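Chain X:
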Amino acid sequence: MNVILTPGRLHGTAAVPPSKSVAHRAVVCAALAAGTSRIENIAYSDDIRATIGAVRQLGAKVEEEPAAVTVTGCGGESFVTVTRPVFCNESGSTLRFLIPLFSLTAQKIRFTGAGRLFARPQEIYRLLFSRQGLRFEQTGEDLTIFGRLSPGGFTLPGDISSQFISGLLFAAPLLESESTIEVLPPYESRSYVELTLGAMQRFGVRVAQRQRKDGSVLYRIAAPQRYTACDCAVEGDYSQAAFLAVLGVLTGGVSVTGLQAASRQGDRVILDILKRCGGKFTESGGVYKFSRSLLKAAEIDLADCPDLGPVLFALACFCNGTTVIRHAGRLRLKESDRIAAMQQELAKFGVQVQVEGDTVAITGTALCKPQTPLDGHNDHRVVMALAVTALAAGQSAVIRGAEAVRKSWPDFFNVLRMLGAGVELQQD
């Protein structure tokens, strides 16, 4: 699907979608709990549907409503026979959260997916399974495991995806005895692990953690523990709000609701980044109002907020001076190589993106109208970042592959239209 964007005077208030990160974790914990949980404020993105489908194969019962799910869990022990491959679509969270849990079924499990899912590294799990004498085989099209994880001491580097740490944390309370997980420095994306621990705590599981002098963190998980049912609501998503926030400080007239000020989401740092760049906004009664601002370049560290990468590339185009984005290497391992994708597409606006190792430098400039269609690279965050860039630049643009937004924010273009942008969707 292509989207044709035409700039317009933006004005209005939009509710951000529920946090995908929080929703994944709530669904997983509810599926492991004894009893019935109700999770409100759910948005059925492709990624969340993948997780719902996977936990059903573990034995959980999930009843869907327009904006909520009721989950009757398997109690963490009444796993059913898995009779077909577990389809994870393009969701790295679904795959990495569920690999350790499906190993507890002691069955041969085949995971399938779409896009670049199996091009994304799973070496951490391969080594872990190998050390315990378990089967772990990955091809470009699927991944197969066989064998039940045993409790013990696990040591993981901290500069990997936090999804591996979270996957082990979800499974460890269900093992026969205590386990420890040591995360070595530098510990990146720790805020995502904090989201996992928060979800586990809400569902009755306790994890002790200790920060060591050498910078490592030790998690101690008593076992066996049992997840207990819990009713909860999913908070708004800061990583999605970032697109509207950036658009707001570039064009003015945009207000956002649905964000929790005390959130553990690492992507809430977008507000601090905007302040450092000179972005103006106010908050009153839970409504954030973003005003058009004169922006200046800053240094930005993506170590704990890699999902903000694409929209921060867009922001940098409009900042006076050269914005330096450090620890961007994780962007190469997402749904696309987000560094290469944004470099290629921003060049169509006349923006030069300089890359040296894991550091990116972008100098603000006057943006020109793209003479060829923009390519979304089958990546939801790239598509949304390019839409923000075009509208903020006041330039009409065509974005190919716009359907990628279904992965996380299916209503994104409807929201832009409601705010006053010209949006025309065309099927290929």
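Chain Y:
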Amino acid sequence: MKQRIVVCVLLLIIVAAVVVTVSVVLIKLGGDSTQEAPPDSSQPLFSEPADPSSASSEPSKEFAAVSASSAVDLTYFDDAVFVGDSITVGLGNYKILPAENVYADIGLNLDTIQTKQAVQTSSGSVTVLDALKLKKPSKVYIMLGSNGIAWIKPESLAKKYEAFLDQVIEALPDATIYVESILPVAASKEAADARYNNASINEYNQLLFNLAKEKGVYYLDCHASFKGADGALSTEYAEQDGMHLKKTGYEALLEFFKTHTVK
């Protein structure tokens, strides 16, 4: 009988000890409300390296239209080539820049620039792209699109421009490339021929801006400096046809180039 009593007492003591021990552990675990929760074992402690293929395809440099800068001198353009149509031809005709650095031709457009032998070299006439490959300039200025706004839809023009621009980038991977906006037309030109209207030109220029951004080249917003309060080409710069520039216009264009450069 006495043995049974002893066994029962011992069992009670063991149970009591277990209860006390469990209580102490629970108090320690729940007592500090500010303690951070343990890490979730289902989550990795270290994140996986980023997948390069998921990185943005945008150019790494910050992109916007080239902003105003301190003026460079004319030697900056010694290794530059200016590509374009009759509007660009005037840079050489008015001796604003050396004619040998002007790769332009009257009527040149995005349909003909790939095939027309518009540039005279010591080896004869070649296309603009072939002339660029021969000269290998450090800077290329491109103004194209004026001969096309009357019949090429904006999206089509952008695709044609992209095809040519891709070839220039491939041929001159180290060159600084400037895409120039299409200049506005004068109010008289707009009134005489509805196909040439400044609202459409603005739409074209937005696409050219987007294209330059996509390709990682520089966009020059010449358009903004040549329009008047009405959004049309200022009469100060416009020839009588309302589309081409007077000498004062080319002088202003050169000044714009000099004060909008990247180093």
